[in-house]
Amino acid sequence: MKSILAGISLALGMLMTGQALAAFTAADAAEVDAEAKTALAHFNDDVTGAKTLIENAKGLLICPKITKGGFIVGVEGGKCVMQVGGESVDYYSNKAAKVGLLAGLQQYSMILVFNDQAALDKFREGDRKWEVGADLSVTVAKVGATGKLDTTKMQAAVVALVFGEKGLMGDLSLEGSNFKKLTIEE
Which domain holds residue 53? Predict the structure, then answer.
């Protein structure tokens, strides 16, 4: 019961305060970079074949900490960094609201692997918001119990890799997830 109430509180809190209204500063960017470096290292260490996939990517959108919570109505959000050639080039917010059979609280990491230069360029152009399913076609790849990637989906233009789940949530869908480019404010 406490986790359900915590999920409801988190969902309502994120919805009411509007995480995106806060300024994104150079200190925030440095924090996201540090968290992304740690998440990428864990992914490379824990998943067989990850290094080859990462090295061959045109770009990576690393979302080191996405928090999802709610009961019937839920929200999720986090900050992400786009890396091209191992360098941070852009920062994004990730948000989604969902309604349906969901309950709980969860935190996870996600990497969007851009295998196609055209898909990467389209994602990075302008300051508009991108929605998975509407603007961006993403193939979700799974990591098996042995720590190996499902290689049948690795050649898609954009592949989502979700890992490091903590907590319990009755929903795992990227449909409707929004990514908005952030501007670093001084």
Answer: 2-185
- The whole-number pLDDT of residue 62 equals 97
Going by their DSSP bridges, the two strands 178-182 and 87-114 should be labelled as antiparallel
Phi then psi dihedrals of residue 5, to 5 deg: -65, -40
Contact 161, 141 (CB under 8 A): yes
State the pLDDT at residue 58.
Answer: 97
Domains in the chain, number? 1
Q: Measured at the alpha carbon of residue 106, what is the angle toward residues 145 and 12, in degrees to the nearest 5?
A: 160
| pLDDT < 70 positions in the chain | 1-22, 99-102, 127-128, 133-136, 142-153, 167-176
Confidence at residue 72, expressed as pLDDT on a 0 to 100 scale = 72
The reported pTM is: 0.79
Query: CB of 108 within 8 A of CB of 76?
Result: no
Determine the Cα–Cα distance for residues 92 and 124; give it in Å rounded to an integer: 10
Please give the torsion angle defined by the CA atoms of residues 149, 160, 77 and 178, in that order, rounded to the nearest 10 degrees: -170
